[in-house]
């Protein structure tokens, strides 16, 4: 059966919960039109997460790679358009704080996703979920993993890869105190719609 690798991240910085973990757990093992979702969680660690992603890819051999990340403060579901060859920003969970580094010294400056992000946004809005395409995944772990997924997609014909940033859950919003949140079931349902659109666009 064709596989979809769906990844999430562990908690990081002052986000004590990462709702991507709950979404991945909720969707792990379900099937959409003959595609099986395999969920995995990665560390928020610049040294480890790329290796983890590669290991999951090797294990699952997915046709589609969709990675999820929390964007605390955003209030819409935001499929990402572009990943850039930059590591920079806040300390990761191991205390590593890259400044203006490249992900790959000789890597392309950027990769555009080949997921159907416009279809995702249109479908989400049609179903009543606030959504828009984001033109920056930042320069932290999420951008890093999106870039790695797209390197793999470039090298493997027919593979689709990309990234979706999600808002906080209500639970995290309450705990954090300064960011908007969504109901957890809505987060799961919205990500499922994005996966359905991807299956629809790639299933031929
Ligand atoms: N969000 C962070 C890293 C892990 C996560 O869930 C980001 O946007 O880079």
For the biggest β-sheet, the strand order reads 2-3-1-4-8-5
Task: Round the Cα radius of gyration to an integer and report it.
Answer: 16 Å
Structural category is: alpha/beta
Name of the level-1 CATH class: Alpha Beta
Q: Give the N-to-C terminal Cα separation.
A: 14 Å
* Major beta sheet summary: 6 strands, mixed
Percent helix = 25-40%
- Which architecture would the CATH scheme give at its second level? 3-Layer(aba) Sandwich
Counted up, domains total: 1
CATH topology: Aminopeptidase
N to C succession of SSEs: EHEEHEEEEHHEEHEH
Q: What ligands does this structure carry?
A: pyroglutamic acid
| Total DSSP E strands | 10
- Which geometry do the CA atoms define? globular
CATH superfamily: Peptidase C15, pyroglutamyl peptidase I-like
Number of helices: 6
β content, as a range?
15-25%
- List low-confidence stretches: none
Average pLDDT, rounded to a whole number, is 97
Brief overview:
The chain contains 6 helices and 10 strands, in the order βαββαββββααββαβα.
Notes on the protein architecture:
With 204 residues, this protein is of the alpha/beta class. It has one domain (2-203): Peptidase C15, pyroglutamyl peptidase I-like (Aminopeptidase). It contains 6 helices and 10 strands. The strands form 3 sheets. A 6-stranded mixed β-sheet has the order 2-3-1-4-8-5, sandwiched between helices. Strands 6-7 form a two-stranded antiparallel sheet. Helix 5 (170-176) links the parallel strand 9 and strand 10 (181-182). The longest helix is centred in the C-terminal third of the chain and has 19 residues, at 184-202. The protein is globular. Residues 9, 12, 18, 20, 44, 69-71, 138, 140-142 line the site of pyroglutamic acid.
């Amino acid at each position: 059966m064709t596989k979809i690798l769906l990844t999430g991240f562990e908690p990081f910085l002052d986000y004590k919960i990462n709702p991507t973990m709950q979404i991945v757990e909720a969707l792990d093992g379900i099937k959409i039109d003959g595609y099986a979702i395999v969920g995995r969680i990665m560390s928020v660690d610049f040294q480890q997460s790329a290796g983890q992603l590669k290991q999951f890819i090797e294990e699952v051999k997915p046709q589609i790679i969709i990675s999820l990340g929390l964007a605390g403060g955003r209030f819409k579901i935001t499929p990402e358009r572009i990943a850039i060859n930059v590591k920079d920003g806040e300390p990761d969970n191991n205390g590593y704080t890259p400044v203006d580094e490249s992900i790959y010294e000789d890597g392309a400056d950027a990769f555009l996703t080949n997921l159907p992000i416009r279809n995702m946004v249109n479908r989400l809005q049609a179903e009543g979920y606030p959504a828009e395409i984001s033109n920056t995944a930042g320069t932290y772990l999420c951008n890093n993993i999106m870039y790695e997924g797209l390197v793999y997609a470039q090298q493997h014909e027919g593979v689709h890869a990309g990234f979706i940033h999600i808002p906080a859950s209500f639970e995290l919003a309450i705990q954090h105190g300064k960011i908007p949140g969504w109901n957890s079931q809505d987060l799961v349902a919205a990500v499922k719609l994005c996966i359905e659109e991807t299956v629809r666009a790639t299933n031929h």
